[in-house]
Amino acid sequence: MTRKPLFLTFAVLALALLRPCPATAGTTGKINGFVRDQKGAPLPGANVTLDGARQGAVADAKGYYVIINIFPGVYTLTASLIGYDRVSKSPVIVIADQTTTVDFTDQTATVDFALKETALQMSEVTVIAKRPLVEADKTTSEYVVTVSEIERIGVVRSMQDLLQLLPGVSVDGSNRIRGSFVEQVGYGTDVAYIVDGVRMNHNDGRGKGGTFQSVNRGAVQEVSVLAGVMPAEYGNTQAGVVNVVTKEGGNKYHGWLEGRYEPAGQKHWGANVYDSPQHLGRVRWNDPNWTNERDPLTGRLVHQRTDYDRWSGYQAEANASGPMGDRASFVASIKHDQFATPLPGPSKAGFYDEQNRFVPSGPDNLTASGSFTFMPSANLKLKVGGLLQRWSYWNPGNEDVTGGSGTVFNLPGVMRGLGDDGRDLFLPEGWSAAGRQKAREELEYAVLTHALSPKTFYEVRLSRSRSFLDTSGASPVTALNAQDV
């Protein structure tokens, strides 16, 4: 088989296996402007280069230049021409899906260079550019957080914490922007999450219950929130868009490790749960017969206090990136949480989900992401990446499987906690009638970017997402006689 039919066959198979993403958010930015001399005359043929990115452009007859398909970040822009001094501008901030509007004179909306004519070799001139307060090409409300700003915000533990610092984003973890619609399960579904131009989906078949949106904070290069009337490129979105661009490995190896420690202590107001006024008249800690009562089936003590306020917790996140030869690079990120339970429950530890709800989980919860970037030539780039989140949890039996303290009177779903007016407080630890279940969210994608000319490029995106829920760990017990404490 010749190369051309082989390539066509592979393309057809790839399209059959992977469905295209409904949203086409941009993941790169653009810089344009003019190159002139001190008298304002254009300088055709001037070279404009982006330091450290192997990208640039040549000014046309009017001195105009444009550089497209630039990865978000902070760069130095240099203009040069024989017979003129070199001029550099920094920092030039590139934002995804936007044209950079850094002004030399603070009067135009482009990056302009004024080159000084010279007959001698002179030193380089560096000009510090400022980002304008008003960006003329924006058609909707947009708030952007760059990687340098993310690294400076030390109190942020996750991307969800970061989003809640932006205007218009709800701080209650309900995934709402500017008061958008919320499902009965208490979670907004009108906000789209896009990573590297690919829509993040939650495909559990229920049609509601949340959106897969877990991206490690250390893997984020830039995050932006769009609100208001969405541009045509964002389909099936009512309230807003969260656009995330992940990092790409550079030409040097980097490693990053962060750990957080949560000391032991009571994490709620008021008295210890076992001394709560809601149990007044029902608990009898001074009665030996009551405290020594045992389950006739298992022989365990029925009324046992759990020292839930004496357990500590932690969070660990690690990132690694670097080159793989001259034309490829990689980025890998992994995070694990093991926080102490804020209230007595079926497990001593767990993690907090996107809605900041505590999920009683085992030590197997994990969030990971990674990407591989290959550039066979200056005008062709292939990025292959993936996101993974997995965890196990005790199912409380209600419809929203990751939250709540147990559905009242739904006995097959009862588990230890404060549900059913406190009747579940003394149920066995490490047990739920609905069982221990496993969940996993996956997203794999590939993005091909091809620059046809200095002013034209196109992208091809393929993705696959899957939501996995294993309920095989359910207990054979189908009913439970929950007794008053």
Describe this protein's structure.
- The protein is mostly beta strands.
- The chain is 6% helix and 36% strand.
- It is built from four helices and 23 strands.
- A hairpin with a 2-residue loop joins strand 22 (436-453) and strand 23 (456-470).
- The protein is elongated, with a radius of gyration of 28 Å.
Topology:
Layout: H1 3-17, E1 29-37, E2 47-50, E3 55-58, E4 64-70, E5 73-80, E6 87-94, E7 99-100, E8 113-115, E9 125-128, E10 141-146, H2 147-152, H3 159-163, E11 191-195, E12 198-199, E13 220-227, E14 240-246, E15 254-262, H4 288-291, E16 313-323, E17 328-340, E18 349-352, E19 358-360, E20 366-377, E21 380-394, E22 436-453, E23 456-470
Parallel strand pairs: 1-7, 1-8, 6-9, 11-14
Antiparallel strand pairs: 1-4, 2-3, 2-5, 5-6, 10-13, 11-12, 13-14, 15-16, 16-17, 17-18, 17-20, 18-19, 20-21, 21-22, 22-23
**What is the gyration radius calculated from CA atoms?**
28 Å
The chain-level structural class is: mainly beta
- The percent of residues in helical segments reads under 10%
| Main beta sheet strand tally, sense and closure | 9 strands, antiparallel
What low-confidence regions span 5 or more consecutive residues with pLDDT below 50?
Answer: 6-21, 102-110, 398-412, 477-485
